[in-house]
Amino acid sequence: MDLISLPVIYDKKKFDGRYRFVIAAGKRARKLFQGAKPRIASKSKKLTTLALEEVLSDSMRILIGEAAIKAKEEAKKLSYGRLIDEAKQKEALPEDLTEIEKDLKVYLHEKSARKNKQGIDKIFTKEGSK
């Protein structure tokens, strides 16, 4: 098994600094741990080493500069948490609607019962006995 020797030599045009390289390798390693398929064939068995190799190869596109800032802003707009919250709200809406419908039916039933209810005076008078 080949070890990645330090310092890692990377293309200065592809990465604007070591920090960007480390962040990209870390994000790729996380995706590999979550079950993503490797993009390159490698002899390494460790996923972190595989992530470093993938980032160093041209199998991934790394954004730098203004493109990275713009992509980060777009990612904030479409965050995973917001999508889940919206999905939960859509699921909760039909249940809430049925509760409102039930309350409305009870209200309408009680309202019609009040209209049909005769007063004591009407029951015992001649008008009520007709």
Task: Write out key terms for the chains shown.
130 residues; mainly alpha; 6 helices; 0% strand
Account of the 3D structure:
It is a single chain. The protein is mostly helical. The protein is rod-shaped. The model has no long low-confidence stretch (mean pLDDT 76). 65% of the residues lie in helices and 0% in strands. It contains six helices and no strands. Helix 1 crosses helix 2 (47-56). The chain has two domains: 18-78, no CATH class; 82-129.
Topology:
Blueprint: H1 18-33, H2 47-56, H3 66-77, H4 80-116, H5 120-124, H6 126-129
Q: Between the first and last Cα atoms, what is the distance in angstroms?
A: 103 Å
Please count the helical segments: 6
The amount of helix comes to 55-70%
Q: Give the uncertain stretches in residue-range form.
A: none
Q: What's the overall geometry?
A: rod-shaped
What assembly state would you assign to the polypeptide chains in this entry? single chain
Largest sheet: none
Overall number of domains: 2
- The arrangement of helices and strands along the chain is HHHHHH
Question: What fraction of the residues are assigned to beta strands by DSSP?
Answer: under 5%
By helix and strand content, what is the structural category?
mainly alpha
What does the average pLDDT come to? 76
Q: What is the alpha-carbon Rg in Å?
A: 34 Å
Number of strands: 0
